[in-house]
Write a structure and sequence with these properties.
Elements lengths: L5 E3 L4 E7 L4 H13 L1 E7 L5 H12 L3 E5 L2 E7 L11 E2 L4 H11 L5 E5 L10 H9 L3 E4 H4 L1 E7 L3 E2 L2 E3 L5 H10 L3 E2 L1 E5 L7 H8 L4 E3 L3 E5 L8 E3 L4 H13 L2 E10 L6 H8 L3 E10 L2 E9 L7 E2 L2 H6 L4 H8 L5 E4 L12 H11 L3 E4 L4 E4 L6 E4 L4 H11 L6 E4 L11 H9 L2
Parallel strand pairs: 2-17, 3-16, 6-7, 10-12, 11-13, 20-21, 24-25
Antiparallel strand pairs: 1-25, 3-5, 4-5, 7-9, 8-9, 13-15, 14-15, 17-19, 18-19, 21-23, 22-23
The protein binds shikimate-3-phosphate.
C-alpha cells in the first residue's frame, strides 16, 4: 500500500451509539458570517477539519480575529468595512465552499486579492460564480475567462441583480448573497432546483430580512448579519457513512445522535427507504433553526432502485458515491441519472466510484450523467480514493461486508471533512 493507504478487513457486526463532528456546510457559513458581522460570535461544535480550516485561514488573511479552542471558535468580526487587503495569495485548499463564498466576499471589497486552491480545486469550475459577480460589478480574472483558480478580484460597492442560476448550487447562492452585503438595490436569486438552505436559515436568525420561496430568494442589498451564537448540529454527510455501514452489515445496531436533517441534505434517506432499508428518525427537534434528530439503523436487505428526480439528486448529491456502494449490496440493478455535477466535485465521482466498484468485482457502468450498478456480491480488492474524502469513506463502508479485504489508496483525504472517521469506524466495527 502507499504510505497513506489503508486496508480494511470485513467484519461481522457494526454496533454502537456515536456522534459525528459539526456540519461542514454550516461551519463554513458560521465562520464567514461571523467575520462579516460587527462584534463577537461564539460557535460551538464547529467542524475542525482541513476544509473549514481553509475558511479560517482565508478570513484571518483578511484581518478577522478567530480564536479556536477544540471545536469552539470565538470570532471578533469587524464588519464588512473592516477587512484589509491580504498581503499574499489566499489558499482555499481543497474546499469548493470556501472558494465560492470567498469570491463573493472578496467582491465586496475595493482592494486587490488573489484566491487559489489545491490541484483538485484549481480544476473545478468557478464561472458559475464569476459570471454573476461580474454582472454585479466585480472585476475578476483568471484562466479561461475567470473559470479556474487562481482568480484575481477587485470588487467594491456592487449592484444587486436578478439572477437565474443555470446550475443548482448552494455555494453559488451563498456567495451571491454575501456579495449583496455591499451593494445597492435588490438581489433576486432563482435556482433551477432548491438546494440546501443553511445560509437562509442562519441569516434569518441573524436578523437579515430575506424572502424565500422554494427556489427564489429576494433581499434588499447591504444588509449585514448580527454576530452568531450557536452550536452546530452533527454533519448528515458524515453520519451517512455509519448509516450505510449499519445497513449493509451482516448484523448491526447503530444510533447516530444529534444529526442535522435539513431536507436539502437528506435525499439519501428517501433513496434508502426506496431500497427497503430500515432507518428510524427519532427525537426530531430544532437547534439554531436547523432540524436535528437521532438516526437509528439496523441491517437491511436492499433492492435496486432508479434515482433520477432532480430534487432527490440535489439533496443526496454528496451521498451518491456511498449510494453506489450500497447498491452493490442490493438485489438487482440501481440506476442514478441527472447527476452530472458529480463530475466536478473534489474528484470526478462518477469515474472514481465506477472504477472502484469494478476493482472490487462489481459490475458498474458510467452513464455519462450518472451510473448503473448491478448488485450482488462484493469481492474486495484495491481502489483509489482519487484524493477525495467522500470516495475514501464510501469504499471503507464497502469493506464491512465484502468477501475479502479492501485496500484504499490515499486514505488521508478523510481529514478534509472527517478527521475522526477512523476512530469512530474502528469503534463501531469493534476492532
Ligand atoms: C455545499 C454545496 C454543495 C455540496 C458541497 C457543499 C455547500 O455543492 O456538494 O459539498 O456547503 O454549500 P454545490 O454548491 O457545488 O452544489
Amino acid at each position: 500500500m502507499s504510505s497513506s493507504g489503508i486496508t480494511f478487513q470485513p467484519v461481522d457486526r457494526i454496533e454502537g451509539q456515536i456522534a459525528v463532528p459539526g456540519d461542514k456546510s454550516i461551519s463554513h457559513r458560521a465562520l464567514i458570517f461571523s467575520a462579516i458581522a460587527s462584534g463577537v460570535s461564539r460557535i460551538e461544535h464547529l467542524l475542525v477539519a482541513d476544509d473549514t480550516m481553509s475558511s479560517v485561514r482565508c478570513l484571518r488573511m483578511l484581518g478577522a480575529v478567530i480564536e479556536m479552542e477544540g471545536s469552539t471558535a470565538v470570532i471578533k468580526g469587524s464588519g464588512i468595512d473592516g477587512f484589509k487587503e491580504p498581503d499574499d495569495v489566499m489558499d482555499a485548499g481543497n474546499s469548493g465552499t470556501t472558494a465560492r463564498i470567498m469570491l463573493g466576499l472578496l467582491s465586496t471589497q475595493g482592494f486587490f486579492s488573489v484566491l487559489t486552491g489545491d490541484e483538485s480545486l484549481r480544476t473545478r469550475p468557478m464561472k458559475r460564480m464569476t459570471i454573476p459577480l461580474a454582472a454585479m460589478g466585480s472585476a475578476l480574472d483568471g484562466r479561461e475567462h475567470a473559470n479556474y483558480l487562481p482568480i484575481s478580484v477587485r470588487g467594491g460597492r456592487l449592484k444587486g441583480i436578478d439572477y437565474k442560476m443555470p446550475v443548482p448550487s448552494a455555494q453559488v447562492k451563498t456567495g451571491l448573497i454575501v456579495a449583496s452585503m455591499n451593494a445597492r438595490g435588490t438581489m433576486t436569486i432563482t435556482e433551477p432546483v432548491g438546494t440546501r438552505d443553511h445560509t437562509e436559515r442562519m441569516l434569518k436568525a441573524g436578523g437579515v430580512d430575506l424572502k424565500t420561496s422554494e427556489r427564489t430568494i429576494r433581499l434588499a442589498c447591504s444588509q449585514k448579519p448580527l454576530p452568531i451564537n450557536m452550536s452546530i448540529p452533527g454533519d448528515f454527510s458524515s453520519a451517512a457513512f455509519f448509516i450505510g455501514a449499519g445497513i449493509i452489515a451482516r448484523h448491526s445496531d447503530v444510533l447516530v445522535t444529534n444529526v442535522g436533517i435539513n431536507p436539502g441534505r437528506t435525499g439519501m434517506l428517501d433513496v434508502l427507504k426506496g431500497m427497503g432499508a430500515s432507518v428510524d428518525i427519532m427525537n426530531a427537534r430544532y437547534e439554531a433553526g436547523e432540524p436535528v434528530a437521532d438516526i437509528h439503523v439496523t441491517a437491511s436487505k436492499l433492492h435496486g432502485i432508479t434515482v433520477e428526480d432532480k430534487r432527490t439528486i440535489v439533496s443526496a448529491i454528496d451521498e451518491l458515491p456511498l449510494i453506489a456502494v450500497l447498491a452493490a449490496y442490493a438485489q438487482g440493478r440501481t440506476v442514478v441519472r441527472n447527476a452530472e455535477e458529480l463530475r466536478v466535485k473534489e474528484s470526478d465521482r462518477i469515474k472514481a466510484v465506477v472504477e472502484g466498484l469494478n476493482h472490487l468485482g462489481v459490475r458498474a457502468r458510467d452513464l455519462g450523467d450518472g451510473f448503473q450498478v448491478e448488485g450482488g456480491r462484493v469481492m474486495g480488492g484495491r481502489v483509489s480514493s482519487y484524493g477525495d474524502h467522500r470516495i475514501a469513506m464510501a469504499f471503507a463502508v464497502s469493506s464491512v461486508s465484502s468477501e475479502k479485504e479492501t485496500s484504499i489508496d490515499d486514505f488521508g483525504a478523510v481529514s478534509i471533512s472527517f478527521p475522526e472517521f477512523m476512530n469512530i469506524f474502528d469503534r463501531v466495527r469493534g476492532v
